[in-house]
Amino acid sequence: MSGSGTLAVMRIATLRRPRSGDRQPGAVGVARLDRRTKRLTKRLKPGDIAIIDHVDLDRVAAEALVAARVVAVVNAGPSISGRYPNLGPEILLTAGIPLLDSVDAELFSQVREGETIRVHENTVYAMDGAVLAKGELQTAETVASAMAEARAGLAVQLEAFASNTMEYLKRERDLLLDGIGVPDIRTDLEGRHALVVVRGYDYRQDLLALRHYIREFRPVLIAVDGGADALLDEGLKPHLIVGDMDSVSDEALRCGAEVVVHAYRDGHAPGLSRVQDLGIDPVVFPAAGTSEDVALLLADDKGASLIVAVGTHATLVEFLDKGRAGMASTFLTRLRVGGKLVDAKGVSRLYRSRIPGHTLALLVIATVITFAVALTVTPGGRAYQFIFTHWWHGLVGWLHGLFT
């Protein structure tokens, strides 16, 4: 090829090379898909685009997505259905993460795991520009409007919550009132404090605030599913792991803690085979409530003198935000445990206040002045002053002789 031909090819290649200014608008990232948000967050990486199917996106799921540092969230379902004022969408928007809502569920079959896609405004694109799906882009205005409508219909949800509470009471009366059905465990809780950790609201702040309490009282550490990983992340080893085993890591299950698998009321336990495959012989606890309830009931029945709850659900808004009718069981369980239960939620707020900087500066100055006065007026201080003065003059004389 001649020199002019080579230059022509190089010129064409240069023209075809994408420029930074040609970058298409929107969020570009690797697609990660799962219809269960809790399961998806385990494998998300910074810069990914999360594709979920989560009606009424709750606060815990939204905070997990924010922590994973995704660049966009595409939801096949409505993030706010209007049933109740759920907190998730607002958390995503506050973190600057675009939320595309009510996208056609066919997107799960059109996009492959690990494929790079682009989300711009209300559309999901393949990297060749093909339109994969369209949805409703949530904004601060649309979320505020939907939340206002949801609050207006809150009375209906309160009625449903009350109805579910009565149904649960009828089904689990013996367990709640008399503790019938609570299995025996090896872990000794009699007369001890129990710290029940759920990887829920503000659990990191509360665990940090409770470190002195844990060090002093050495409570039995009861982890609910992923709460075991939360404890290990803080350098703490759980004594007991309770749950259906859908959000706890294999490493946490192998840490040496006793494992209690939460089963359905009929005895079916989806997480049992996973635990047994790890060579662990677990205890099975059939109950109709949540794993959080099972942990609280277990601690109470086995004689814990005080139960401190981290990351659990304590308010009506949190019960509804969980998005499950079964959260009515948690309401009754908390009534059952009664005065033993102390919520760690909010403890971190009590410890946020720190001594102001100017107060610390005044304290240091006062200490220095006190020390100086003591050196001046006390016999011991004058002796130290004489020794220091003699040493200083000797050092100055030595340095003078060294450099002259």
Q: Unreliable stretches, pLDDT < 50, 5 or more residues? A: 1-21
Q: What is the distance, rounded to the nearest whole angstrom, between the alpha carbons of the first and last residues? A: 78 Å
User: Quaternary arrangement of the chains shown?
Assistant: single chain
Q: Which shape, going by the Cα principal axes?
A: extended
Number of helical runs?
19
- Integer-rounded radius of gyration: 30 Å
Whole-number average pLDDT?
82
Class inferred from helices and paired strands: alpha/beta
The number of distinct β-strands equals: 15
β-strand amount: 15-25%
Notes on the structure:
The protein has 404 residues and is an alpha/beta fold. It has two domains: 21-150, Phosphohistidine domain (Glucose Oxidase, domain 1); 155-350, no CATH class. It has 19 helices and 15 strands. The strands form two sheets. Strands 7-6-5-1-2-3-4-8 form an eight-stranded mixed beta sheet. A seven-stranded parallel beta sheet has the order 13-12-11-10-9-14-15, with helices on both faces. Strand 2, helix 3 and strand 3 (72-75) form a beta-alpha-beta unit. Helix 3 (59-67) runs parallel beside helix 4 (88-94) and helix 18 (357-377) crosses helix 19. The longest helix is centred in the C-terminal third of the chain and has 25 residues, at 379-403. It is extended. The N and C termini lie far apart (78 Å).
